[in-house]
From TrEMBL:
Residues 407-523 form the DUF2326 domain. It comes from Francisella uliginis. This is DUF2326 domain-containing protein. It holds the Pfam family DUF2326. It comes from the Bacteria. The keyword Metal-binding does not apply. Keywords: Coiled coil. Residues 233-267, 351-391 form a coiled coil.
Length: 529
């Protein structure tokens, strides 16, 4: 549980928190720019978020870089410090907030995940909690897609989040990782085909290879018998076969390295710079462009081109040296083969070529079979994933709808619950009895409280805009519902004279009361000219 936040930029230097509902109160005039949303963003910052940095640049501009000191209570009290200057690092402190050790933001979030008992497989703390921190300018208005953490997130990622929160993701994660690894193998073969490191076969060419392999095996056997008869030795030298095998491997390596050097030389021959003509055209079509900035861009490109050329030359030199070593090894092996009597037999040279040809065809067919097997494995894994998701999704859906119905009944006084549907890669959140904006936000609150009730989700944060469109008597019911939870819920609310029946709750649960005179920060800049 979050216990307190301290900062020199606060007018009230220490803000203390408690179990259950924590209210940031505004005044009855609904005065803006007094710090309500900023405090919620700071709470998000304390819980590992980054929106405070991006959404409150005016605070840093007017107050300078600053730090927050804060503590949590779990099995014992823990003390930390996080600042805006290097927000990716967290200071572990003693009870006097003296620095003890620096940890990364990721490690801090892992700490929270463990202490809040949500260290589920395949999840991070921020991934689990972020979409339930609904602050103005962040995600507070996502009434149609309450599980979406950001605009770019896929429905599948949102579905994964709720499955993880219900701790049902273990088997799905195992299958997903297997699918990812299988796809990676298949992509490797695809790249081999694309870069001509392997020949891509059709079913027809595969079968043709099989016939040719059979024919080559027969020819090899006949040549071996001929060599056996013609040679003083009873069988082909085993040493020769090993040398030929090694020779073929080296030739393949040489081929691949030569192709790599060709590509590197091609890249080196390209002009990395933007030529003078390019800049003249830019100036022609954009005569007002800042020429000094354009010159700096040119300088940057020249420096970058120099670095790229240096790296490519180093790669070419390294590859060329390996090629020289391979060439030397090929010469050495050829000399050894010539020193062996069998190598002087013309039949032996024919045999070597036949073995090489057979090995190549077998390798092509082996790659073809592996590619098809991976394709089949991928299809099977996708079916298994769908089956596993469909096994857990209905149970989650039923639990959410049942709980939402109970919460909505307490808020509305009747059965006006929204409905939640989920399958393996998408979900639907339908409004309840009417399509008004106030109802949409009330349904969103019901959904969040449902997840808070049924899972180990540790906190909720609801900013003022969540309540603005809800009629006062409904807000009163919502606050009463909030007040029945022991988990921490942080909300911002103003114009409290409208909410007569909950004045006692708001007074008891407030952590700070802000107004035009009593702002969150020591300096007010919104009125500056």
């Amino acid at each position: 549980m979050l216990l307190e936040i301290r900062s020199n930029i606060f007018r009230k230097k220490v803000i203390e928190f408690h179990e259950g509902l924590n209210v940031v109160l505004g005044d009855n005039q609904a005065t803006n720019s007094i710090g309500k949303t900023n405090l919620l963003l700071i709470i998000d910052f304390i819980f590992g978020g980054n929106s405070y940095i991006s959404h409150s640049k005016d605070v840093i501009k007017n107050l300078g870089e600053h730090e927050f000191y804060f503590s949590f209570s779990f099995d014992k009290k823990y003390f930390f410090k996080r600042g805006t200057l290097d927000s990716k690092k967290i200071s572990q402190c003693n009870e006097l907030y003296e620095h003890q050790e620096t940890i990364s933001l990721d490690d801090f979030c892992k700490f929270l995940q463990e202490k809040y008992h949500i260290a589920y497989k395949g999840s991070t703390f921020r991934d689990l909690v972020s979409c339930f921190i609904r602050i103005w300018g962040k995600s507070e208005d996502n009434t149609k897609e309450p599980l979406r953490a950001n605009a770019k997130e896929t429905n599948k990622a949102s579905v994964d989040r709720v499955i993880k929160l219900f701790d049902k993701y273990g088997d799905i994660l195992h299958l997903s990782e297997e699918e990812k690894n299988t796809k990676s193998e298949k992509d490797t073969i695809k790249n081999m085909y694309n870069f001509d490191f392997a020949k891509k076969l059709t079913k027809k060419s595969y079968e043709k290879n099989l016939k040719n392999i059979g024919l080559l095996e027969k020819q090899i056997k006949e040549i071996q018998q001929s060599i056996s008869i013609a040679s003083e030795h009873e069988k082909l030298s085993e040493e020769n076969l090993l040398l030929i095998s090694e020779l073929n491997k080296l030739k393949n390596q040489r081929f691949q390295l030569e192709r790599n050097v060709e590509r590197l030389n091609f890249n080196l021959s390209n002009d990395f710079k933007l030529g003078r003509k390019t800049y003249e055209n830019i100036e022609k079509y954009f005569p007002s462009i800042n020429k000094s900035k354009l010159a700096r861009v040119d300088t940057f490109h020249k420096k970058l081109a120099k670095i790229l050329r240096k790296n490519i030359k180093e790669d070419i030199d390294a590859s060329s040296q390996v090629l020289l070593d391979i060439e030397k090894s090929i010469i050495d092996i050829n000399d050894k083969i010539k020193d062996i009597d069998d190598a002087n037999n013309p039949l032996f040279l024919v045999l070597a070529e036949k073995i090489k040809e057979k090995d190549l065809l077998e390798k092509q067919n082996e790659t073809f079979n592996k590619d098809n097997k991976l394709k089949e494995d991928l299809e099977n894994l996708k079916l298994k994933l769908i089956k596993e998701r469909n096994k857990v999704c209905p149970k989650i859906q039923d639990a959410i709808n049942e709980k939402m119905q109970k919460i909505s009944r307490r808020i509305y006084g009747k059965d006006n619950s929204p409905s939640f549907e989920i399958d393996e890669n998408k979900y639907f959140f339908e409004k309840s009895w009417d399509t008004g904006t106030g109802t949409a936000y009330t349904d969103l609150i019901s959904f969040d409280l449902t997840i808070l009730s049924l899972t180990n989700l540790p906190i909720l944060v609801h900013d003022l805009p969540v309540f603005k469109h809800i009629e006062p008597k409904r807000v009163e019911k919502v606050v009463e519902e909030y007040n029945s939870y022991s988990k921490q819920i942080f909300i911002a609310l103003d114009e409290t004279s409208k909410y007569v029946s909950i004045n006692d709750i708001l007074e008891t649960k407030k952590v700070i009361e802000l107004s035009e005179e009593e702002t969150l920060f020591t300096i007010v800049w919104s009125s500056k000219k």
